[in-house]
Design goal:
With 119 residues, the protein is mainly β. It contains no helices and eleven strands. Strands 2, 4, 5, 6, 9, 10 and 11 form a seven-stranded mixed beta sheet that branches. It has a four-stranded antiparallel beta sheet with strand order 1-3-8-7, with no helix packed on it.
């Protein structure tokens, strides 16, 4: 069984920074891409950022572009999300996701980590 485990969430003041980590564990798998989604209270889940496992492409939602940076450690099968200039509207549960080879979409999801940004 494949698992994604997020860490690094917490409470931070507006303008601050956090770094989220996501580690894959369990049965080894090959992924096409990994990334992050988030869901704020009362809102739909939304895409935040992703990275192709080949390392040849990173993608960001317009709302986080220029503030967030996604990276990966291929050897450790981990990804990271460096979040700078945090805003109260970034408050959400952040989910790590993976699209395994052969899957049409992100088919592995972590349980999420809470990020709260106070004004």
């Amino acid at each position: 069984q494949v698992q994604l485990v997020e860490s690094g969430g917490g409470l931070v003041q507006a303008g601050g920074s956090l770094r989220l980590s996501c580690a894959a564990s369990g049965r080894p798998f090959s992924s096409v891409a990994m990334g992050w989604f988030r869901q704020a209270p009362g809102k739909e889940r939304e895409f935040v950022s992703s990275i192709r496992w080949s390392g040849k492409g990173t993608y960001y939602a317009d709302s986080v572009k220029g503030r967030f940076d996604i990276s990966r450690d291929a050897r450790a099968n981990k990804i990271y999300l460096q979040m700078n200039g945090l805003k109260p509207e970034d408050t959400a549960v952040y989910y790590c996701v993976a699209q395994r080879v052969g899957a049409d979409d992100y088919d592995v999801w972590g349980k999420g980590t809470q990020v709260t940004v106070s004004s």
